[in-house]
Amino acid sequence: MTMSAPSSLKGGLATLLAALLAAGASTLCCIGPLLYLVFGISAAGLIGVPAFDWLQIPMIILSVGLMARGFWRLYLSPRPVCVSVLSRRALVWLYWLSVPLVLALLTYPWVLPWFLGNYE
User: Fold this and answer.
1) Which of 30, 84, 91, 102 has its CA 20 to 30 A from that of 45?
2) CB atoms within 10 A of CB 30
3) What is the pLDDT of residue 7?
């Protein structure tokens, strides 16, 4: 079964967007405290924030898996990515621009407390 160019492109972009969404969702447990910190609300309101803590590890696994699939589709796949709308070069650029964003979203729950502890 062969895939047409638009459906292959849609699949690659869908993988990239899903990885970004999973990385963003994996930080749900820490967005609340960060917003409280930014807007200066006291720590008394942080009691109910850890409600999404159980989602962090599955979302990290999902986002890393989707980024690995995107890498595999761009570089290692025996069937090259079809490029009718965007060039392969543009897809590679989009992929490598999204990698630091995904890594920042995945690691900030551990890096932010370290950064604030060392530079306060």
Assistant:
1) 102
2) 20
3) 63
Cα Rg of the chain, angstroms: 18
What's the confidence (pLDDT) of residue 61? 92
Which residues contact residue 82 at a Cβ distance below 8 angstroms, ignoring those fewer than 6 apart?
3, 4, 5, 8, 9
* DSSP-based three-state secondary structure for 62: helix
The DSSP 8-state label assigned to residue 40 in this structure reads: T
Place of tokens 């290692």: 76
10 Å Cβ neighbour count for 62? 18
pLDDT mean for each 10 residues of the chain (120 residues): 59 83 76 68 57 80 92 85 78 92 85 78
Provide φ and ψ at 116, rounded to 5°: -70, -35
